[in-house]
Amino acid sequence: MATLTAEIKKRSKKAPVRGMMDNVMEQFETAANKINLHPNIKKILSITNNEIIVNFPVKMDNGDVEIFTGYRVQHNNALGPYKGGLRYHPTVDIDAARALAMWMTWKTSLAGLPYGGGKGGIKLDPSKYSQGELERITRRFTFALADNIGPEHDIPAPDVNTNSQTMAWMADTYMSTRPPAERTANQHVVTGKPAGSGGLEGRDRATGYGVYLSIKFWAEKNNESLKDKRFIVQGFGNVGYWAAHFLEQDGAKLVAVQDASGSIRNSSGIHVEDLFNYSKANNGHVSGFPEAFDLDNEKFFRTECDICIPAALGNQITKDNAKIIQARLIAEGANGPTNVEGEKILLERGITIIPDILCNSGGVVGSYFEWLQNRSGELWQLDEVMAKLHKKLKESFDKVYDYATVEGIDMRTAAYCIAIQRIEKAYIQRGIFP
Ligand code: GLU
Q1: Which of 36, 158, 290, 323 is the most buried (most CB within 10 A)?
Q2: Which residues of the chain are under the pLDDT cut of 50?
Q3: What string of DSSP letters covers 185-213?
Q4: Could you tell me how far CA 160 lies from the centroid of its own chain?
Q5: What is the sign of the dihedral through the CA atoms of 198, 161, 307 and 400?
Q6: Given this model, what pLDDT does residue 9 score?
Q7: Domains of the chain
């Protein structure tokens, strides 16, 4: 008993754990003050429009039934249908879904897309389930959400631990709930589908390509080349892998990687395709890669490098490790990887951050192209897609970079200011019903 009381006392003295929502709200507040956002619009954007929580049963391979909890938060749709991914992860809860939905609103607005923001997912660890179970979980979740999503209303996409296969199951399930004559016309209910099933050529690499391009644009602004630049990547999933792939093509050197299995380092360089093939054969894990040393997790952010790419989960760079980061540039492949306290320290140290809503926006821009392609019945080639992505991301990067330079502010605040002003304008033009 005595030990328990002491433990509770000790814990209550600690600062409360900051959730992702605290983070996104503080970022919003800073930008809203900077642009003198109209108080009525501020009230609207501070809350989410709809929050859907579904509990649903799924039959497991052994015949037992398990109950799952799924979320979809629709933050704002002033600029168009809600848009954003669905993730499968134990950290998914209503706080995370709200924050991630808000980030999508800013991201789609900044990219100049006709979308709002939404996000969701299921609280689960997918490594504990078979493919068959994951398929049934996905289909049942889609069925539970079916009245609240739709190709012109709310369009999910892949996110952490979901992929084109997940989207193929979702599209098929959703289309099966529609009358036969309307089925194909509904295939753009989700984006990120496989290329053979209404998906976009290159959607798989779009996010990582965008992360790479942001870094390249930053280097160009500083009259630097990417050749021999050392970079570290946290998370070697779709985003981390593709970003590393394109950086390596430009002569940059991957020197450390961290994922859920551990951390690895090789200061002479880790060959990206070798690591990719190794991780594919090892349940997606990087630890134990024979051409690198295993590294203590705490030492990962200490690695000597020029560029750090957090491409895993939120709240990874905090006041606890912001002091030890060696990079000059942080390129946020993940959503919300740097919290407000961590960011303050990084900015004081003169480290540049390319914020998530700009840096990883290649994914949702790719999704937009897929959606357009589905609506018009066109099929675009890979080189066309990559060229269009380049053009769109360059426009966004320049807008943010120039705004930050002219106003003398950091790139995140600049990105927020641009994104929020676009939404404010739409509200002012249309007024509030009734
Ligand atoms: N999940 C990705 C993101 O966070 C993509 C969202 C989408 O394509 O709708 O941006």
Answers
A1: 158
A2: 1-13
A3: GGGGGSSS--GGGTPPTTHHHHHHHHHHH
A4: 8
A5: positive
A6: 45
A7: 48-185 (3.40.50.10860), 206-356 (3.40.50.720)
